[in-house]
Amino acid sequence: MKYVNIFLALFVVIICSSATMKSKEKPVYVFGMAASFNDSIVYCTDIQVVDSVELDKSNFLPQRSDYAYQMKNYLANTYQKENYTCMIYFSENKKKLEKEAAKVKGQYKKAPGMVLQTLDASSFTFKKPNY
Predict the structure, then answer these.
(1) Which residues touch 125 (CB under 8 Å, ≥6 apart)?
(2) Is 125 part of any domain?
(3) 8 Å CB contact between 89 and 104
(4) What φ, ψ does residue 25 adopt, rounded to 5°?
(5) Residues 93, 97, 98, 103: is their CA dihedral positive or negative?
(6) Residue 46: DSSP 8-state
(7) pLDDT given for residue 3 in this prediction
């Protein structure tokens, strides 16, 4: 009987502690920009949601380079644009990211001879890397 009570008490503690643990994973908003010194076309994506991402201790997006390579590979395979540098912008706050996107896109729109081409979510979507 003594062991049953200890087992039940331990079981209750485990259940209660697991129920109170919160996951730090939450939706993160991202958009990408791709530019090349050899081309006047600058590609940008719509702001997209990547679900269940946990930012690291420095509040950076883990595997940022993987998201950039997703966009780079898409441009190489779809448009034969091999020499593009891709940049990923992210935030847990959509309004903050929209403001940043407007600022970055505005800089490219002001540049003479630059053409801004948007990749909508139906043609290209970021996917969370599986590790």
Answers:
(1) 48
(2) no
(3) yes
(4) -75, 130
(5) positive
(6) P
(7) 53
Number of domains observed in the structure of the chain: 1
Buried-state track 79-116, b at ≥16 Cβ within 10 A, e below 16:
eebeebebebbbbeeeeebeebbeebbeeeeeeeeeee
d(CA 32, CA 77): 17
Residue 12 lies in a domain: no
pLDDT confidence of residue 129: 87
| Pairwise pLDDT comparison (23 vs 50), residue with the higher score | 50
Is pLDDT larger for residue 4 or for residue 51? 51
Which pLDDT tens digit goes with each residue over 85-116? 999 999 999 999 999 999 999 999 999 999 99
Closest CA to 61 of 86, 26, 85, 34: 26
Where in the sequence is the domain holding 50, given as residue range(s)?
23-119
Q: Is residue 35 part of a domain?
A: yes
User: Residue 8 pLDDT more than 50?
Assistant: no
* 124 within some domain: no
Name which of 94, 125, 131 is nearest 32 in CA terms.
125
Output phi, psi for 87, to 5 deg. -120, 140
Cβ–Cβ contacts within 10 Å for residue 8, how many? 10
Structure token pair of residue 9: 């008490």
